[in-house]
Amino acid sequence: MTLLTILVLLIVLVFLFVQFSPQFGAAPDKSSQLRYEQLPYYTDGKFSNLIPTNMDMSTGKAIRMLPEFFKNDPARRPDFEIPIEKRDSLELTGPVAATRLVWFGHSAFLLQIDGKTILIDPMLGEVPSPHPLLGKKRFSKELPIAIEKLPKIDLVMISHDHYDHLDYGSIQKLMGKTERFLVPLGVAAHFERWGVDKSAIQEFAWWEEAQIDSLRLAFTPSRHFSGRGLNDRFSTLWGSWVIQGAEENLYFSGDSGYGPHFSEIGEKYGPFDLAMMECGQYNENWADIHMAPEETAQAAADLNTKVFMPIHWGAFTLAMHTWTDPVERVQRKAEALDQAIVIPKIGSFIDLSSELKTRENWWVKP
């Protein structure tokens, strides 16, 4: 009876946590779902990928993988303090002569282009999960700059609603200094529950564009999925972003398995000056929704980009490979394809007016 009581209590606590914690966001309302039904990739309340995508990992297999996933493998995170370049708030304020980015690790960026300051997938919290006990901490103890010291943000752009890309705590701190939030279909419901004014949120379907002053923005497909709770998988859309300024043309992949959409995006919007490409957190059990490093390099070539940067690594352990496996393998494949690659230090300025090249192998233990 004691064991049964404990089990019932745990179930009740989990239910209450999921029901009432704001971390989980909210579901799109019925009127929104009716609008989504006009799309060819939305059926019976769920979005789908453009090509068949295997998501069939049985519950039994997932449970059997848990010990391996949570194994304390020292190779899965750095055993030294990875170098971080610190940024000062004054550096990010005022006119900027050239397009530049700052990488926060994983998939989070600050982009300054055509007089706009933009945050892309700003997961700036410590743990990518609905509760700190349910995930592993960020590799680095500090960010290049604290959220509180960031300047006014013109746009926050979100690729999808997974915890390592959309962080409730970060959005809470950014609300007061952000003018506009650009999100995939369905994700507005999360932001509204979190207190963001509806007028500040703009939702996008695949291939939908927006012109904001000199910037042309397009939300483009990826091959992935969405969901923050126990039963909301596929209820919101996922995707990638094209950001075209007066001079430079950039691509941000979000999360994606390999597929023909990269060539389609390259044909429609390329060539690109820089492509930020998912490269990390892969495994053979979810090969359709996350690329292996070799596929990342090939996808960059498909896009027709001058240079690409591997992202989705360098900050968190979300898969079973070593923490440097992504960068080591993608470098080799890029060289084989004669595809230019840049791997900047976290926090350094990535200046598109100068030659983009890797200046040091900062991930190698000194």
From TrEMBL:
Pfam families in the record: Lactamase_B_2
Domain Metallo-beta-lactamase: 117-313
Matches recorded under InterPro entries: Metallo-B-lactamas, NAPE-PLD, RibonucZ/Hydroxyglut_hydro
Domain of life of the organism encoding this protein: Bacteria
Protein name: MBL fold metallo-hydrolase
